[in-house]
Amino acid sequence: MNKTQGNDVIVRISDVDKSFDGERVVKKLNLDVERGEFLTMLGPSGCGKTTTLRMIAGFEVPTSGQIFLEGEDVDDKKPYERNVNTVFQNYALFPHMNVFDNIAFGLVEKKVKKDEIRRRVEEMIRLVQLDGMEKRMPAQMSGGQKQRVAIARALVNRPKVLLLDEPLGALDLKLRKQMQGELKALQRRLGITFIYVTHDQEEALTMSDRIAVMNRGRLEQVGTPEQVYNHPETKFVADFIGESNIIEGYVENMTEDSIEVTMESGKAVIPETGYRMEEMVYLCIRPENLKISTEEKEGFRFRGQVREHIFIGSTNKTMIEMPNGQMLKSVTPAEDELIPTGTTVNVYWNPGKAVVMRTKEEQIYNVIEQSVEIEGMRNDQIF
Amino acid sequence: MIRSFKKRIGALVTVGPTMLWLGLFLMIPLVYVIGMSFLTKNAYGGVDFKFTLSNYSALFSKEYVKVFADSLWLSLETTIICLIVGYPFAYIIANAPKKWKPALVLLLMLPFWTNSLIRTYGWNTLLRTEGIINHFLQGIGLIDKPLNMLYTDGAVLLGMVYALLPFTVLPLHTSIEKLDKSLLEASSDLGASRVHTFIRVILPLTMPGIFAGSIQTFIPSLGFFFISDMMGGAKTMYIGNLIKNQFLSARNWPLGAVLSIVLIVITLVLMKLYTRVGSLEDMA
Ligand SMILES: Nc1ncnc2c1ncn2[C@@H]1O[C@H](COP(=O)(O)OP(=O)(O)OP(=O)(O)O)[C@@H](O)[C@H]1O
Ligand SMILES: [Mg+2]
To answer: What ipTM did this prediction achieve?
Structure first.
């Protein structure tokens, strides 16, 4: 037995690698999950989220590395010996058992007394608002109801950690929103650690205490929703979470407290330090921070042409074409006055609103490979 | 008009041959057997065209009731042993790596494609008093006198199980293969050991396969006369032997026909039960 480290880390994933038939699916994963937190693993399809979850649950064995539950190495522990429960991607309700028996399954295994089983199951049924459905069979239930049964079946065992694999994936938008709120409230109330897998970035942003952004089997960034949204550390994170204008450039000049970045379509002064001359960088500006004006702005020589206005409810999205052909997006409140299409405008942003990222070799490599996947994800985004 | 005519031609072309086949080889013999069952046997082993119900009342004589009881009992034993032996087989095949599966199913089916008489003879050479097993056991000094294995009820049971095992395994295999693997993981996740997962999840969910396998074993086992002939030495009489004897040695065709009809009725009832449960399954 291998005791490690502090008391509030409940799950520790240490240098975990997983290969299937020689193909590395999870690469050198390191992650600490704290007791009672809602941690979301977010990433595009096939990036290894489910595989990671399955290793924590014990359905897959890491090719190398270790997993600790409450400080204990669980390498040789079978799933039924681990104090974690899973809500499966497809619910996996037992079709031959009614709602009550499904939820009671784990308690029966633990040899809990009959009347206590009854009490706890009924309490759970009330908690997930399935009152009166005890006798229903899974085949007679809607997706949302099955979902609740699956959650109740896991929670009734009072696990230390609850693993949820895209539990809302099969639900329609409205129900999904409702369940998101309910799940989050449930987690707060019970204080159980949730490790939640999704590829829906909005879901991750609204529900999580922390988000672990995963890509191609690696962790790109772990941080609070605010951190990953406002301070993405890699281009992938910037692009995957929310919409972004990502502009390539290099450091041409620097002063004591700022750098001047030259891009294909112009120049901008940015109040950042710590970069080398000639260093390649990405600028990441959220559409709501990108502004346009017919007047010159100090520190910017960055001009494009207004191409299109798209009305999206309470906001307007303006597309600006830059001289090199790149389209930039600017989102403004709907009541703001619009600059007519065809007008040549100065593009700018408020100091501090652009995130500068180094283009490490590794990142560039990833970016090229992922661009296809990212395109695919776009449609799911809410903006 | 022309369309519906064309449709009819189409239907005739597709269904016609099947109907012809069924008519020739099923309906005509069936009508023949039913007709025969009401005729009177004459002294020379032929039949007289004289209506009688005596063949049916003969059924209720003690010895025939015993034959039916023995037969049903033997079939039941066969089916149960086939299930116990076949389930692990089916489970292993269903969970084998993909590339192995066809080979395993082939191994299971292989005996099917050799003549069943020859296979039964094979058992004879193994089991007889001067057979291979007795030679071996005497050789290593485990026994002094050869064991009396062939021509016992046990030998018949062995032969039946051997011949019918594939009938049990195939439906079981289909049912186990359909089992959603994530249910087994869910069971394990909720704290169930392998044994408990088997009892609480796998067994109930493969019930349709167990049922189908039982019926598909039970029905043919009722009519397998040559195994009890060859391995039981015709000591105990079963329905199959009785029918065969009525037609061949006793030359009492009407009685043979009646016995056949009883067998057919038993089969039909079981088939009905089978499809009934099958359709219940589909609804669930
Ligand atoms: N049992 C397995 N055998 C072989 N390859 C596997 C196996 N399980 C997963 N993989 C591969 O590992 C990669 C990651 O799969 P995983 O299921 O972890 O992705 P995911 O992030 O959960 O994706 P999604 O969002 O689509 O559920 C995929 O390329 C998948 O094909
Ligand atoms: Mg997945």
So the answer is: 0.76
